[in-house]
From TrEMBL:
Keywords: Aminoacyl-tRNA synthetase, ATP-binding, Cytoplasm, Ligase, Nucleotide-binding, Protein biosynthesis. One of its GO terms (molecular function) is ATP binding. One of its GO terms (cellular component) is cytoplasm. Its EC number is 6.1.1.10. This is Methionine--tRNA ligase. Signal peptide: none annotated. It comes from Allonocardiopsis opalescens. It is found in: Cytoplasm. Residues 4-147, 148-364 form the Methionyl/Leucyl tRNA synthetase domain. Belongs to the class-I aminoacyl-tRNA synthetase family. Is required not only for elongation of protein synthesis but also for the initiation of all mRNA translation through initiator tRNA(fMet) aminoacylation. InterPro entries: aa-tRNA-synth_I_CS, Anticodon_Met, Met-tRNA_synth, Met-tRNA_synth_2, Methionyl/Leucyl_tRNA_Synth, MetRS_core, Rossmann-like_a/b/a_fold, tRNAsynth_Ia_anticodon-bd. It is an enzyme of class 6 (ligase). It holds the Pfam family tRNA-synt_1g.
Length: 505
RNA sequence: GGGACGGUAGCUCAGCCGGUCAGAGCAGGGGACUCAUAAUCCCUGGGUCGUGGGUUCGAGUCCCACCCGUCCUACCA
């Protein structure tokens, strides 16, 4: 058994969540549930990044205090926990969680003690939306490539972090695999960025420009800690850095794996700045960073203005949490962005869940009820007709383990569908209804049908077990209906409903 | 400008270190069955594996160039 910690990035809460957020939450949740099922000691964490300047502006625009604005919008993210059937152990809000500020201050003090901070005047083009400086050349027609807004020309005296000191050590950590960046193409991308030369970066903003929102720099009330420095710290402040050292040791320093799940847009912060900050402060580094791609929706980049920012809460309500979970796991490619459409979700749900797995469970449970009054026969020691089914069933767990280790959720999900396929094929080949008729009309012995039914129940139970991390709600239903390993099945009831799109769409 | 990753059947995609690698699923066509959520099973694919070269006995699978897409990175007029 090992100790496993997995974390999402914390989204800044301005605006509503979209399917892209759901993707990251679901992937992380599946990793956590998977490890728990295997018996590991697991801690899964998410939260919200509240201290961005953007929140101040939005709050001002609405004429409400920042605190209450942030509390309100954060609810949209918090509520996804239930809507998507997530199993996070912790949710940290950087503005109001009492654990956060002391930890950030401690981290700051540790970097300062190392001599990694210095003051410098900086002039640059700053995009408030990104909370990031851009070089002239990075802009698209003078506008932020992410937000399409004109960045502000900013000149101020800030604290800088000596990132340049850590260039070699960072390259070593990543190329050696001690800090594993996945997929490999992302690791190469990070390494080439590091090798191109790292420059110190600014880790504070003037109190004035931050409108007083954020965490003041210890010993310098004129400056506020840069929101990225602040936000990244959540990964250690939540487990107790700066507030509960015993807990922190347990859930960070002494954990066997510390895994970040992030989107491709913030690799630099997580694979370069963050490990460097930790090295500076003398804190253990994360062990893995899994980078996912982005989702588009209806063929376009997700944005509020395009009107395609699908609300995952609404999707889950409309199609079911497990249908949405299944889509993000089964249909999202590892390389390249994937387009979300309702149609794709519905197709996946109907093909894999309703028609394949759901129907197999349904026909199995129905037959056990019809032919054996719900009593599950004993599994035959020898069943030549089920050789292939047994082979596929027995191999699934290892194949899934391999896929999960590579963060290949799609392949893992496919393995489960293959088990369902083989189960359905077995039903056709074994024709239990013919065996039942033979018992009735020809007084045939029950052993043949017993063996088939037992094989099918075993398959459905295995499907339920394999699905636990992916579709927790539905997996529980399958297991319950199949008798939970006991001697009887329940009444048949469709586990997955067939979905339809409104004709209007 | 440099680099990464994609470009494989109508659609979504598998194809590791070169030799059943020309595939799966969906869609389409035909058939079977009835236990089941009009579900399932079987049969059915005349695709220049982005383009052009090269290496090799043999290349989606390696090399070079180019085109298209996406993404990193870069203060050259």
């Amino acid at each position: 058994m090992s100790r496993y910690v997995v974390m999402t990035a914390i989204p800044y809460v301005n605006g509503r969540p979209h399917v892209g957020h759901a993707l990251e939450l679901i992937e992380t949740d599946v990793l956590a549930r998977y490890r728990r099922q295997r018996g590991d000691e697991v801690r899964a964490q998410t939260g919200t990044d509240d201290n961005a300047l953007k929140n101040v502006q939005s709050a001002e625009a609405e004429g409400v205090p920042v605190e209450s604005y942030v509390e309100r919008v954060a609810q949209n993210f918090l509520s996804l926990g239930q809507a998507l059937d997530l199993s996070f152990d912790d949710f940290i809000k950087t503005s109001s969680d009492p654990r956060h500020r002391p930890g950030v201050e401690k981290l700051w003090a540790a970097c300062a003690a190392r001599g990694d901070f210095y003051r410098k005047t900086y002039t640059g083009l700053y995009c408030t939306g990104c909370e990031q400086f851009y070089a002239e050349s990075e802009l698209v027609e003078g506008r932020c490539p992410e937000h399409g807004t004109v960045p502000d020309l900013v000149e101020e005296d800030n604290w800088f972090f000596r990132l340049s000191r850590y260039q070699d050590r960072l390259a070593e950590e990543i190329s050696s695999g001690r800090l594993r960046v996945e997929p490999a193409s992302r690791r190469r991308e990070v390494l080439s960025f590091i090798e191109s030369g790292l420059e110190d970066f600014s880790v504070s903003r003037s109190m004035k420009r931050a409108r007083g929102w954020g965490i003041p720099v210890p010993g310098d009330p004129e400056q506020v800690i840069y929101v990225w420095y602040d936000a990244l710290a959540n990964y250690i402040t939540a487990p107790g850095y700066g507030t509960d050292e015993a807990r922190f040791a347990h859930w960070w320093t002494e954990a066997d794996e510390r895994v970040h799940v992030i989107g491709k847009g913030i690799i630099r912060f997580h694979a370069v700045y963050w490990p460097a900050m930790l090295m500076s402060a003398g804190v253990t580094l994360p062990s893995q960073i899994f980078v996912h791609e982005y989702l588009t929706a209806d063929g376009a980049k997700i944005s509020k203005s395009a009107g395609n920012a699908k609300d995952p809460g609404e999707l889950a309500e409309r199609f079911g949490a497990d249908a949405l979970r299944w889509w993000t796991l089964r249909d999202v490619a590892r390389a390249g962005d994937t387009d979300y459409t309702d149609e794709r979700l519905v197709t996946r749900n109907n093909e894999d869940l309703a028609n394949n797995i759901g129907n197999l469970v349904n026909r199995t449970v129905s037959m056990v009820n019809r032919y054996r009054d719900g009593a599950v026969p004993a599994l035959a020691a020898d069943n030549p007709g089920a050789a292939e089914l047994r082979r596929v069933r027995a191999g699934a767990e290892a194949q899934i383990a391999e896929a999960m280790d590579a963060y290949d959720f799609r392949r893992a999900a496919e393995v489960i569908v293959r088990v369902g396929d083989e189960g359905n094929r077995y039903v056709e080949a074994a024709t239990p209804w013919v065996l039942a008729k033979a018992e009735r009309k020809e007084d045939a012995p029950p052993a043949a049908l017993d063996a088939v039914l037992a094989e099918l129940v075993a398959t459905c139970r295995e499907l339920g077990r394999l699905l636990v991390p992916f579709l927790p709600g539905s997996a529980a239903k399958i297991l319950r209906q199949c008798g939970d390993g006991g001697g009887r099945v329940a009444e048949p009831e469709p586990v997955f409903r067939r979905l339809e799109l409104d004709p209007a769409e």
